[in-house]
Amino acid sequence: MRWGVITFPGSCDDQDVFDSLKLELGQKVKLLWHKDDLAGNYDCIVLPGGFSYGDYLRCGAMARFSPIMQGVVKFAKSGGLVLGICNGFQVLCESGLLPGALVRNAGLQFVCQPVHLRVEETDTPFTGGIKKGQLLKIPVKHGEGCYYADPETREGLHKNRQILIRYVDAKGRPVAAANPNGSLENIAGICNESRNVFGLMPHPEDACSKILGSEDGAKIFLSIAAACSGRAKSHG
Amino acid sequence: MRVKIFISLKHGVLDPQGKAIERSLHTLGYNEVQDVRAGKYLEFDVDAPSRAAAELRVREMCDKLLANTVIEDYRFEIGNES
User: Fold this and answer.
1) Mean pLDDT to the nearest integer, B1-22
2) Which of B41, B65, B73 to mutate to test the interface with A (most CBs of A within 10 A)?
3) Which chain A residue has its CA at the smallest distance from B9's CA?
């Protein structure tokens, strides 16, 4: 499979995603510049973390209009897999590929710490290799990661089982103390209705090697890789 | 024409910045202050054949870029001075 990682002006985790995919997981991956068209065959496009366009106006608001995003929207609409991490999640919400929005952390502070996540749904390409209810330890680092959606949108998220991961304590309980940013219902990551676009605030690329304290992030990337090889087989 | 746009978080959306400002005002003794909401203010010149035409364009700009209507409300004023 082929991965594409987009670099926006102000992205700062693009290289981390690239290194984790290539060096730790042996994946084929290419960095893509935001001003280029999305040309070539990719199986999964990653929108990385960082501060695209300096977070001016709103986080992700400007990156949404980068030339490559038109291609990403088309790619997503045709069923391609899109993964948005942190600022990438914000860009996906701003561009309407995911419902809701991410606002200032409830505590006003930038949070930078490992968190426990509980995998809520596994019938997606992003979580297919993980057991339902399994806990992952992955770091967060953000100032605006408080997920918000109006009641109607929330109802849709429940009905279509779009909440894929939640912040939990070490015992797996989604309690307020385990919520680093005040997100509604401890939501850490959601997918779209068609289950091919996934956005999350935690950084799986920072949890792909023992030396970083956790390899749980690799479980997400490897789920995607397995789903794509499955897709290739079913198409071949 | 000069456009002035006021953007604020919708009621129901947590506004921790407004809350922090409110607490600081209370600390200073301004206990009469309640329900502080922090927002954004933008202003710019716009060239349009009429006020109605300008309004239409500005509304479009707000919906497309300047505000995120999932979490924010906006209102604007269009004045004659530039």
Assistant:
1) 94
2) B65
3) A103
- Report the predicted TM-score, pTM, of the whole model to 2 decimal places: 0.94
**Tokens standing for residue A16:** 């981390």
Q: Choosing among B5, B8, B14, B22, which should be mutated to test the A contact, i.e. which has the most A CBs within 10 A?
A: B14
In this prediction, residue A221 carries a pLDDT of 98
Strand pairing report for A111-119 and A197-200: unpaired
CATH superfamily of A2-235: Class I glutamine amidotransferase (GATase) domain (3.40.50.880)
For A97-140, how does the pLDDT look when each residue is reduced to its tens digit (9 = 90+)? 999 999 999 999 999 999 999 999 999 999 999 999 999 999 99
* SS3 label, residue A93: helix
**CA distances in angstroms from A38 to A30, A72, A120, A191, B32, listed in the order given:** 12, 7, 32, 22, 55
- pLDDT of A230 reads 83
CATH number at residue B67: 3.30.1280.10
